[in-house]
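User: Um, what's this?
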Amino acid sequence: MDIRIGILNSPRELSFETSQTAADIEKAVTEALDAGTVLTLADDKGKHYVVPAAAIGYVEIGSESARRVGFVG
């Protein structure tokens, strides 16, 4: 699943792939925003991302379908 997080006052966004479900990501984002704490997510390569909830501009959760490889006929 592709995740993109827009950071306030930053021209770049945080983008990575994770094996977590869309429901898990949405729950983590909602809890961080409600509590005013930090959002912590992990990608498929084992990296952890910690973003202060106050700095989150948006979170885009991509589709869960696998990417196609090759030609489509």
Remarks:
- The two ends are 25 Å apart (CA to CA).
- The mean pLDDT is 90.
- DSSP finds one helix and five strands in the chain.
